[in-house]
Amino acid sequence: MEIKEIGVVGAGTMGASIAYLMAFNGYEVHLVDINDEMLNRGKMNIEKIMQSQLKFSNGRSEKEIEKIEKLGVKLTDEQKEQIRKTLKSSYTDEVVNLIAKRIHYSLKYDEMKKCQLIIEAAFENIDVKKEIIQKLGGIMDGKAILASNSSSLSVTQMSKFYRYPERFILTHFFNPPYTLPLVEIVRSMETSDETFEQTMSFFSALKNHRGPVKPISVKEVPGFLVNRILVPMINEAFFMLDERVASARDIDSAMKYGAGMPMGPLELADMVGIDVTYDVMKILYEEYADPKFRPSNLLKMYRNAGKLGRKTGKGVYSY
Ligand SMILES: NC(=O)c1ccc[n+]([C@@H]2O[C@H](COP(=O)([O-])OP(=O)(O)OC[C@H]3O[C@@H](n4cnc5c(N)ncnc54)[C@H](O)[C@@H]3O)[C@@H](O)[C@H]2O)c1
């Protein structure tokens, strides 16, 4: 089965970016949401992604020239032109227009009939997912793969809602999908080998703005792989802040300059959202029934105070 058209359900933070990634890879994409407002929000986010990537691509040569001149080398106009020519990006306005044309926005699930792969990226709520999965079961013919992007719900439970459970799988992207290459591929107890292999091979052939997409196979366990390591690490940073082991800035600096992290754990919590971080921690604590996953009280206080990070303008830091 060759994948040519891809359906994405939910035009939110993840869905819009996944739709863009697939169109960037040359696929026709059908993006569905519940109302025009949400669909337009998704369209605007895709516009933003494309404009920011254009700006980034066009700015590369000027940054290189600046870097060389900072080293004390005076470049001639000719040399600068040569650098601009060499680093000329293939990501142009024409390419952006082509990508934009591949994304079709709709409020109708019927559009999904044309698709060989559908990625569900709606609200993280089992009832919402159930309704979508059942609806798609009534439309699809059992050849397409239905993949959920859920961060925490059971893929085996969700697969039971689908008329063709052997064609159901979980593809867990990282935010933002158009630059972060990892996708955790999680099969349910019902997923067929064929579905798993087709999914792995499809994702292995994708690329994003930085390079190849990296699918990895992960067993169905709460938090999968990345969140099970990353979120408890963020949680520990909140414990340490609460114990006044160091200031927030110093905790972040320590992990950046001592552990090579591009962003400190508290900065990361503000970016991901303190509510999301707390919810994941709570799920890990409940599911594993292990005290090592106990959510920090300070993390909970930030969440209760509505200081959720960048999205509310205030979290550990102010924005
Ligand atoms: N945000 C992240 O960092 C992140 C990372 C990995 C996975 N996820 C998962 O991805 C999924 C989506 O998360 P998000 O952050 O993009 O959420 P979001 O709230 O930004 O977007 C969800 C979108 O789904 C739409 N929607 C809801 N019900 C629908 C329906 N019945 N049909 C069509 N569209 C519907 C909503 O209108 C909204 O636009 C969740 O399952 C979440 O756990 C999120």
Automatic annotation (TrEMBL):
This is 3-hydroxybutyryl-CoA dehydrogenase. InterPro entries: 3-OHacyl-CoA_DH, 3-OHacyl-CoA_DH_NAD-bd, 3HC_DH_C, 6-PGluconate_DH-like_C_sf, 6PGD_dom2, NAD(P)-bd_dom_sf. It holds the Pfam family 3HCDH. PANTHER family: 3-HYDROXYACYL-COA DEHYDROGENASE FAMILY PROTEIN (PTHR48075), 3-HYDROXYBUTYRYL-COA DEHYDROGENASE (PTHR48075:SF5). Keywords: NAD, Oxidoreductase. The record marks 172 as: Important for catalytic activity. NAD(+) binds at residues 10-15, 33, 124, 129, 151, 175, 311. GO terms for molecular function: NAD+ binding; oxidoreductase activity, acting on the CH-OH group of donors, NAD or NADP as acceptor. It comes from Cuniculiplasma divulgatum. GO terms for biological process: fatty acid metabolic process. SUPFAM superfamilies: 6-phosphogluconate dehydrogenase C-terminal domain-like, NAD(P)-binding Rossmann-fold domains. Residues 223-319 form the 3-hydroxyacyl-CoA dehydrogenase C-terminal domain. Residues 6-65, 80-208 form the 3-hydroxyacyl-CoA dehydrogenase NAD binding domain.
